[in-house]
Amino acid sequence: MLSKRIIPCLDVMDGRVVKGVSFKNLIDAGDPVENAIFYDEEGADELVFLDITASYEKRKTIIDVVEKTAEYCFMPLTVGGGVRTIEDIRNLLNAGCDKVSINTSAVKNPYFVRESAERFGSQCIVVAIDAKRVVKGMPFKPYESWAIDPFLKDVSLDLDNPASNIQWAISTHGGREMKPIDAVKWALKMERLGAGEILLTSMDRDGTKDGYDLELTRTIAETVSIPVIASGGVGNLEHLYEGLTIGKADAVLAASIFHYREYSIKEAKEYLKLKNVPVRL
Amino acid sequence: MIAIIDYGMGNLRSVEKAFLKLGADACITSDPKVILTSNGIVLPGVGAFKDCMASLDRLDLLELIKKEILKGKPYLGICLGLQILFSESEEFGFCKGMDIFKGRVQKFKFTDSLKNQPDGIALKIPHMGWNTVSIINKPPIFAEIPDNSYFYFVHSYYVSPEDQDIIAGKTDYGIDFTSMVWRDNIFAVQFHPEKSQQMGLKLLESFKKICESA
Fold first, then answer.
1. pTM metric for this prediction
2. Domain of residue B191, residue span
3. CB of B35 closer than 8 Å to CB of B74
4. Nearest to A121 among B47, B132, B152 (CB)
5. Mean pLDDT in chain B?
6. Whose CA is closest to A50, among A76, A89, A85, A13?
């Protein structure tokens, strides 16, 4: 039986691991390669590097990190953040990563997802969706692509009907910009364009330690037929359990609980196993 | 030397790095001379069946690899490197494979009766993540590996061999599909040993030994 995956995530800036709440107040938290080796030895099922390097000149640092990591860690490695071109993807794959996660670039041009999937295979294209519950007066930036491709209107939020069900909008640029796009419809669109997996982060929960947005996770996991990784909000092991059962996620991603050694990967898996979740121990 | 076949698609780096870590003499190549003089061939694979066959053909490697395999050179096929050993695939219409083994490559299809996991949600495609391999007929590459060990899988298609005798291992994902085949010098696995931590390295180390003594 396929086991549920536990995926530690490392936020990397200028070649160093950083930590902060909702991408703010970042502090240095160590060397990414050392951290990767630690997680590998602990039995993590995969590893995600989220590159939040801002300056273009320093963007190559993540390639070095991937190359060094791939020398020591023989496990699936995903890199997200700043993936803009086919060339970016090729460079990352050549450095030794297995999947790339695309967020802002997919929103800018949804067909970039299709092009990437056709070129490298769906198995290495993860689409990251940063979703936020729609509330009254949310400051949306207009979605330019609708002018170019009217078919994309399929994924728009229903903003005129406040009585309609709960909705999630997607955000880009690390949560700084809101788009009037419905996260659930967007996930389905991304699957149809060739995404092999969805990395779903709740921007409401990210950094809060209150647990995943289970309603969001479950809604998307039930809508798409590709695997969904739940992310954003883990504070304890019960949250992982909830994400995999109530949220129906195929994998759970967490950063700080593992990074600050609040729990080890092994502890997390033992906890889940006791509760009859299939995990690899 | 172990030749890791470069057909311009897959992520070959991790396969090479794994062999180098094990102290093997391995190189990524598409040079027929290197492949001819190698003492083992590894064909890793991600991507589409048709593109892989077309690339190998364009590089004039298809017949060469087939000949070397049938002459008895140790071969390790990974993922697509397993699938292309078979007669044909249904990926993007029908596409002919190397036809070393009779059988077809099929896509996972979960009909309603097979569709549900215990938590009441459809099985996802691709089959992605860690799953166990139950040994049917233990090949030498599994010498150091216990039954039902976990390996990392990423695929939407699986092989259905006609000849049951070549089935070396099976994995459960809605159906019991063939995840490892073995006949003489030909070893092929659906999972990715280069991504399967210690167990994967053990497999590659056994293959390395087979090549060295070949």
1. 0.93
2. 2-213
3. no
4. B47
5. 91
6. A13
